[in-house]
Design a protein that fits this description.
single chain; about 75% helix
Length: about 70
């Protein structure tokens, strides 16, 4: 999947994922402060945030050019 994207497409996707990650951070923070928050919802959001972080890391790695051995 990543191999088929050019650096500009990867950069755009990274920006989208980072924005979603920030939004999830804010949502999780709000839910954690709410005493009536659903624990399961918080766990699901945290799992999604972790998945996004992994995707971001993979895309960042794809932008680093391979160095000859």
């Amino acid at each position: 999947m990543i191999e088929n994207l050019d650096p500009a497409q990867i950069a755009r996707k990274l920006a989208e994922l980072r924005m979603e990650h920030r939004d999830l951070d804010a949502a999780i923070d709000r839910l954690v402060r709410d005493a009536d928050a659903d624990e399961l919802s918080v766990k699901r959001l945290k799992k999604r945030r972790l998945l996004l972080k992994d995707c971001i890391s993979r895309l960042e790695s794809a932008l680093i050019p391979d160095e000859p051995a």
